[in-house]
Amino acid sequence: MNIPHPIPYQGSKRNLANAILRYFPAEVETLHEPFAGSAAISLAAASQKKAGRFHINDLNKPLVDLWRSIVGTPEKLAKDYESLWTAQLDDPKTFYKETRDAFNLTGRSDYFLYLLARCVKASVRYNANGEFNQGPDNRRKGSIPRTMREQIFGASFLLKGRTSFSSKNYRDVVLQATEADLVYMDPPYQGVCGNRDTRYLASVQFCEFVEVLETLNRRNIRYIVSYDGRTGNKIYGVKLPDHLNLTHMELEAGRSTQATLLGRDDATFEALYLSPALAQELSKSKLIYGFTHTEQMCLLEARA
Does the residue 19 lie in any domain? Predict the structure, then answer.
C-alpha cells in the first residue's frame, strides 16, 4: 500500500522506512519513537503490521498536538486545512504571514499543518523566542485539500486506537520500554539531512545519549538508532562508541543534493545501529536469511 504522510518534514525517514523495517524483530508489542517528527517509521510499521501499538513522542509539543488531531479528529482537521488553503488563494504570501503569527499565539494544529505544507523545504525553524519563523515557499501553495484529506485519513486509519502521544524528554520515553518493545531513535541534531530544529540541541547531548543507550543495554531493550552518516568520504556526526557493542549498518540514501549540484556521483549513506539484544535476536532467527551476505556477517559477528 502507499503509506500516507500528512506531515511534510525535513529529515523524515520516509524514503528509508522500508529499509529500516527490515531490521525489525518478528514481534513488537509497542514501537516507541522518542524523536517522532513525521512518524515515518511508525506509519510504515503500522502499514506492514510490524507492531501492535505505537508511542509517538516529540519535544515539539505543537507537532504532537497535530498528531493527536490527525489520528483522533481527522475530519475536523481536513476541513480546517481546506478552509485555510482556500482562504490563501487571493494573496498567499500575506495569508501565510498572518497564519504564522496566529499560530505563534495559539499553537493551533490546523495552522501548523498549513505552515508545514507551505514553508520552505518543509523545514521547521524557530527564533530565539520559540516562535515559528520559517518563510513560505512562494512557488507553491501546499498540498491541495483533496490530497491532504487522503493523507490525514490514511494516517488516522493506521494509528487510531493503538497509539499514545507525549511531548517529553526522550530519556523519560525510553524508560517506558520493555523487552517486548522496540525503540527507534533518530536524534534530530545528527545525520546527513541538513539542519534540524535547534531547540533540540540542549536536550540531546552526546555523552548523555550514550549513557541512555548504556542503560537500555543493561535492561536488554531492543532498539535501532539512526545517528551519523557519510557522503563519499565526508563523515557527518560522531560515531557511537564501540563499548556499546552496537551492530553498525549503512543504508544508501541516494545521491546527495550537493553532489548533484556539483555534477558528482557521491552517494549518501545513513548509519543504522542495532542494539545488542536486537542483533542477537535477529542472528538467531530465520530472519537473517533475508539479509545480504554483508548484513549476515555483521549479525553473526554480533552473536559471537
Answer: yes
For residue 17, name the pLDDT band (cuts at 50, 70, 90).
very high
Query: What single-letter amino acid sits at 31?
Result: L
Q: Which pLDDT tens digit goes with each residue over 77-114? A: 999 999 999 999 999 999 999 999 999 999 999 999 99
Average pLDDT over residues 190-199: 43
163-166 and 182-185 strand pairing: unpaired
Whether 3 maps to a domain, the answer reads no
Q: Say which range, 50-59, 119-128, 281-290, has the weakest mean pLDDT.
A: 281-290
> 98: domain CATH number?
1.10.1020.10
- Together in a domain, 199 and 251: yes
Find out whether 31 and 173 touch, Cβ atoms under 8 Å. Answer: no
Residue 64 domain-assigned (yes or no):
no
pTM of the model: 0.88
* Spatial CA neighbour of 39 closest among 53, 56, 22: 56
Q: Which residue segment(s) compose the domain that 269 sits in?
A: 14-59+168-303
79 part of a folded domain: yes
Between 255 and 169, residue with greater pLDDT: 169
Q: How far apart are CA 37 and CA 28, in angstroms?
A: 21
Distance between CA atoms of 272 and 186, rounded to whole angstroms? 10
Return d(Cα 41, Cα 34) in angstroms, integer.
11
Neighbours of 145 (CB within 10 A): 16
Owner of C-alpha cell 519563523: 133
> Is residue 117 classed as helix, strand or coil in its secondary structure?
helix
CATH assignment of the domain containing 252: 3.40.50.150
